[in-house]
């Protein structure tokens, strides 16, 4: 067992090393002895180490999971959901601990970490509701002939999750997969492997049979083993577009279901009639929240016509954001350098840095970039078209809505897009024509709340359907169609 996380402040705190969790036991890898440091980004030094597993460890986890699945699938769906009811209560009871753990391994400020746990709890609550939603359908399709649909588990399935939401993204997958009757293998990001270990303990405490949930820590070797293993029937992935595309291709080639969410370059369209107070608060929260390290963050603001009064207010509000207090650190040194590189390059190409966060620091150590706004941008500049994944907003000025839509729809991603306006006509024109799967009207982070599904379009998603909500349940299950007849009918049809 690992101890509860003790910290209740930002003060540096060490924690247990991250190991595998297989068959209800925390254990070292069977083959590799390699480890990587788990850094606290605020302080720039390791709070833990994570083991780097190999294919043999995936094989061992699958054997255990397959055996556990045979029992778990026989549980009535309501009994499976009861485990999630108990898990939900444990998460509520331990929300402070979980939030501080996320703060230390990921770096985000405490209010953002707590909001992540609350969203994870919401995902669990949706899983609790599935017995009432997944009852299937039955219809008498002909005299004495009935057709029905039941949802069957796939077997052993796997998920790969990113660094930016250590607890929430696993909960995009787990409730539907577990209530659906599957056994699950998780590979958390090697940068944030600690929250998943506490989750494993809570699932055990909630009564989940040993072996139904397993963690295989590691990197690329584990992901490739998930894609290749013949007994793993489905793979869910959230991460960068390049890796999402590769995982989707490899898993699909091996006959698995795959749903892989990638990156984004989200555009906010602002028109002159937008409500200033609503727009300013939303835009700043969108591009600075979680230090911009989320796929729903605003990257580009398309200013239609004369929006200087709004842009000035956005700059004034963003300038008040203080690193370390309102804004968390960047995940690691390489990411900080990459973000700074985009800003430097844009400035060299003629963009104006109207708000410069390059000098901001929350601590003397750690990895920091403050809120930054680049004006006079274009899609010819890399910062205006590539995913930065940092607290940087690129302002591109356009003459009309049509040009704004042209720019938005020309980018290869299709994750999210929003419009700020007080005109219902403008809002509808954008919503009807923008190339994005998740859209907002005066909402800068248009994340669908449960039961609505999370998922983008184009290069932001590979596979069919959404990761959360009802689509998620259907992804982790398969339909069995049953047609039955129990008596000979006097009036014959083609089904007789």
What do these coordinates show?
By secondary structure, the chain is of the alpha/beta class. It is 37% helix and 22% strand. The chain has 2 domains: 20-262 and 460-480, Aldehyde Dehydrogenase, Chain A, domain 1, CATH 3.40.605; 266-441, Aldehyde Dehydrogenase, Chain A, domain 2 (3-Layer(aba) Sandwich). It is built from 14 helices and 22 strands. The strands form 6 sheets. The chain has a 7-stranded mixed β-sheet, sandwiched between helices. Strand 7 (156-160), helix 5 (170-179) and strand 8 form a beta-alpha-beta unit. Helix 2 (77-93) runs antiparallel to helix 4. The relative contact order is 0.14. The model has no long low-confidence stretch (mean pLDDT 96).
Briefly say what this structure is:
The protein has 496 residues and is α/β, with parallel strands linked by helices. The protein is built from 14 helices and 22 strands. The strands form 6 sheets. The protein has a 7-stranded mixed sheet, with helices on both faces. It has a 6-stranded mixed sheet with strand order 9-8-7-10-11-21, sandwiched between helices.
């Amino acid at each position: 067992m690992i101890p509860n996380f003790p910290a209740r402040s930002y003060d540096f705190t060490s924690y247990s090393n991250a190991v595998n969790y297989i068959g209800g036991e925390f254990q070292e890898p069977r083959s590799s002895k390699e480890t990587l440091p788990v850094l606290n980004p605020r302080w720039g030094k390791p709070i833990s180490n994570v083991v780097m597993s190999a294919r043999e460890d995936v094989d061992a986890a699958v054997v255990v999971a397959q055996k556990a699945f045979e029992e778990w699938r026989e549980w009535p769906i309501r009994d499976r959901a009861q485990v999630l009811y108990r898990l939900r209560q444990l998460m509520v009871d331990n929300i402070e601990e979980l939030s501080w753990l996320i703060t230390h391994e990921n770096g985000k400020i405490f209010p953002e970490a707590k909001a992540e746990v609350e969203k994870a709890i919401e995902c669990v609550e949706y899983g609790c509701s599935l017995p009432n939603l997944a009852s299937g359908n039955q219809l008498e399709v002909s005299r004495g002939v009935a057709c029905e649909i039941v949802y069957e588990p796939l077997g052993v399935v796997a998920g790969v999750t990113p660094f930016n939401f250590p607890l929430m993204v696993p909960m995009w997958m787990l409730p539907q997969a577990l209530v659906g009757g599957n056994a699950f293998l998780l590979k958390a990001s090697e940068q944030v492997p600690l929250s998943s270990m506490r989750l494993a303990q809570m699932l055990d405490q909630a009564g989940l049979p040993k072996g139904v949930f397993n963690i295989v820590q590691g990197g690329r070797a584990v992901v490739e083993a998930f894609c290749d293993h013949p007994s793993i029937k489905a793979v869910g992935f959230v991460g960068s577009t390049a890796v999402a595309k590769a995982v989707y291709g490899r898993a699909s080639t091996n006959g698995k279901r795959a749903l892989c969410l990638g990156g984004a370059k989200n555009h906010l369209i602002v028109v002159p009639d937008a409500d200033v107070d609503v727009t300013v608060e939303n835009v700043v929260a969108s591009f600075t929240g979680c230090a911009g390290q989320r796929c729903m963050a605003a990257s580009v603001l398309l200013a239609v016509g004369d929006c200087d009064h709004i842009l000035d207010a956005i700059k004034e509000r963003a300038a008040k954001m203080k690193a370390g207090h309102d804004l968390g650190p960047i995940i690691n040194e390489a990411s900080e350098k990459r973000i700074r590189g985009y800003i430097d390059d844009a400035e060299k190409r003629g963009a104006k840095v109207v708000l410069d966060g390059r000098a901001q620091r929350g601590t003397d150590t750690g990895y920091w970039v403050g809120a930054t706004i680049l004006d006079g941008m274009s899609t010819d500049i890399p910062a205006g078209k590539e995913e930065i994944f940092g607290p940087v907003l690129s302002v591109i000025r356009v003459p009309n809505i049509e040009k704004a839509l042209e720019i938005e729809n020309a980018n290869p991603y299709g994750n999210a897009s929003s419009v700020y306006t007080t005109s219902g006509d403008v809002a509808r024109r954008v919503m009807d024509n923008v190339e994005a799967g998740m859209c907002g009207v005066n909402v800068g982070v248009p994340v669908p709340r449960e039961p609505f599904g999370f998922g983008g379009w184009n290069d932001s998603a590979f596979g069919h359907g959404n990761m959360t909500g009802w689509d998620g349940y259907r992804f982790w299950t398969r339909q069995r169609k049953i047609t039955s007849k129990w008596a000979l009918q006097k009036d014959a049809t083609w089904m007789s």
